[in-house]
Every structure is written in C-alpha cells, then in structure tokens.
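Lab notebook: predicted structure, single chain.

Context: the supervisor wants predicted structures on file for every construct in the current expression panel, including those that have not yet been purified. This is the next one on the list. No modifications to the sequence; it matches the entry in the shared construct table.
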Amino acid sequence: MTTNNSESLNQVFREAREWPIIPLLEEIITTLSRWFYERRTNANSCPTPLTVDVEDIMRQRYEQSRYMRVTPINISEFHVKGEPLDGLVNIEEHSCTCREFDIDKIPCIHGITAAMHRGVDVYSLCSKFYTTEFWRMAYAKSIYPLPPEIEWLIPEEVKSKVVIKPVKLIPPGRPKNKRIPSRGEFPKEKSNFASESSSKKVKGKVSDVDGGKKQRKCSNCGCYGHNKTTCKK
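Prediction complete. Output recorded below exactly as produced.
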C-alpha cells in the first residue's frame, strides 16, 4: 500500500540502472556516501535530546497539555480531562486510552500532563529510537568509494568460476521502463484534455447502439458497423 525502500531507490537510480554494473555500483556508493555524510552532520549538530521532528511534536503537545486537568487514581495511573477527549494514562506501561502513546511511542498530551503532575521527565517516556543518540548511531559508519580494479582482492574460488550470459527471452515490443503499480494502488487518471485528444486520433466516429455496445459510424454513408475504408457504397 505504500512505497517501500526498494521502489524509492529505483526511482533515485532510474537512469543509472541502464549503466554497466561497475558504474552502477559506483553511483550507488557515491549517493549513499553523500546521504550518510549529510545525515551524520545534521545528527551531530542537533542540540536537543530527541530528533528535530519528534522535538517539534513534543513542543506542540506540551502547549496543548497546559490546559488539561489531572485526577490521580494511583501511583502510576491518572485520569486526564480536556479537549478534544479525556484519557486514562498509565505512566509505568507508557499507555493511554487515546492510543497515541501506545502506537507512536511518544507521550500524548494526556501522558505529558500526567508525567508533569507526577514529576517524571517526559523525554524518558519516548522510545529510545527517537533520541539523537540513536540518530547519530544510525549514520556513524562511513561509506568509502570503490577502489581501482587492480586493488581488488578476489578469492580464488571466485576467479575460477565461469560466468556465462544468462538465457533471456526478449519479448516483442518496446521494453517497459515504468514501475508496475502494486496491489491496492490506483493509477493516476488521465485528464479530460488527454482523453479528448486521444479520441480525436481515432478515425471515424463511435456511437452507442444495440444496447450500449460501441460501434463505428461510416463517414461516407452514415451507417454503423464499418468505416469509410470498408464501405461498399
């Protein structure tokens, strides 16, 4: 239902996919190396405990939580009242009846209100995968370029293998270069202008006769079922 990583990379390397294998690998390595460097730089310059996007979400929810009211139930559960709905928060289980806390693994407005009432650090309630530390760890490694071919260390068992050209049956017609939509995707509808222009290219007129079945109308005699080329008059 969604575009996964492989489809996204196919779109990025759409032109490079037509290249030989070694230039294609060099393009992939160069692109990934640039991405890692940019993300590593952004992660190292982030001053907040959480990533930039999650930090913005936390600030927005903190502003909304200032207008909520808390009723303690026990040491870990709190009933938080406010708009647009109330919530029953469990601080120990990181859960709330609004389900935002459970699914996003980020404290909802009810969770932030309950944490502030109990004196718990709201950042400790976030998943560790949203922290800047994990962001930096994700891009800590460096990707190096492909060395020259003379420096390659190829094992003997690989050198001894004979690789022949695979048997490939080329179907007739122009090869496809567009992605086939996955199940559940809806292709973009053509505009009215495109449909009208394509209909103008068809010789002869088309009309609905005989119970809705479309038939051609001859421009010579005006009858249906044939065109000017096959007209006998």
